[in-house]
Here is the input.
Amino acid sequence: MNILLLGSGGREHALAWKLVQSTHCDQLFIAPGNAGTASVGTNVALSPTDFPAIKDFVLTNAVGLVVVGPEEPLVKGITDFFRKDENLQQVVVIGPSQYAAQLEGSKAFAKQFMERHNIPTAAYREFDASNYEEGVEYLKQHALPVVLKADGLAAGKGVLILDNTAEAIAEFEQMIKQSKFGDASKKVVVEAFLSGIELSVFALTDGKSYVILPEAKDYKRIGEGDTGLNTGGMGAVSPVPFADASFMQKVEEQIIRPTIKGLEQEKFDYTGFVFFGLIKVGNDPFVIEYNCRMGDPETEVVMPRLDADLVELLLAADNGTLLQLQVDQDPRVACTVMAVSGGYPGSYNKDIPISGLDTQLPSDSLLFHAGTGIKNGQVVTAGGRVLCVTSYGTSVQDAVSKSRKALENISYEGIYYRKDIGYEF
Ligand code: AMP
Ligand code: GLY
Here is the structure.
């Protein structure tokens, strides 16, 4: 079967790497892809949100399966676009409907869903211009720190954690009255701060049943020791040492199962990945956020540890036979270390030539491109997160040191990566 994968990051390179290993994969197209995906499939110069152009491509190239990597096309309704078009009825789309994608696209929608289904999450209230004054009063009596979240998508920047009431009220005003995050902050969720350690858990669902994929922990801060600004993610490890069997059982019983049951009861059209952004408080899991897609850089460790045919899994999710499949996990540890552009997550230059990419990697390391492109035959930087190396190992430290060693052979002006991924394990 011909497959079209939408997106261009490290997540998509890792998904592409896994998809082409399937016996069901004939041609793999990636739109728009990066310099790495070009080595596993065919890049196509299409925007993941240009639905009519995607339709033409799918029909012309007899694509039978569309896998949506990032959230934007989902939140904009790509699945509904395919469902409604009579010429696209035979095409399998992996990703929820626009309505269901609000689990990621609207923090208030997600919180209300969790409340209806008794899923553990931080206590909250939602406010907009209509109950603004009430929000100010709520903030005045709220314990500190307090968390303010723009309701809509804000490129990962819409969450503020404040330990001062006056500042919290000032930010609240900025968000609602001055559109600090544009339309995304017209509505604000105010929630209690939870103190604990975060992890990412993934399931593939058809909206009724589910299979659980390997869990991961990502490292969001730019600086070593988890300091400095937030980024898209500087590295990841899987499995997560503190997520032992008894904790993962709680995650399944208290979070995954009620979430999927909620999707079913409310008749959500949801065939795709659910990303549970969790925090472990004491020994109990709470949901920080849902995403309707895989994580990045988590996918770069989850796919290498997924011991199953990914295309078979996706097709089973489409035809309701997920539970007939065996999903094993590679027992090895996998860690990824992300190299970024100098200056990231602030401003940075692009089009910088990358060298050392042809150096042979050890057999237990994998190179995934993220923000790379090809200019005049040369691989160049094309984004903040440039590329990552995932390695298998017997321990977190073993895997991370292999990735660091492999990265030492790769260079471009301004290259930076954290040397301490997995430091706490
Ligand atoms: P979100 O976009 O909802 O994932 O929030 C971004 C980050 O803010 C999370 O990864 C957490 O590190 C932090 N965060 C969000 N909500 C809370 C909360 N209720 N308590 C503590 N930290 C939070
Ligand atoms: N690594 C976090 C995310 O993909 O949202």
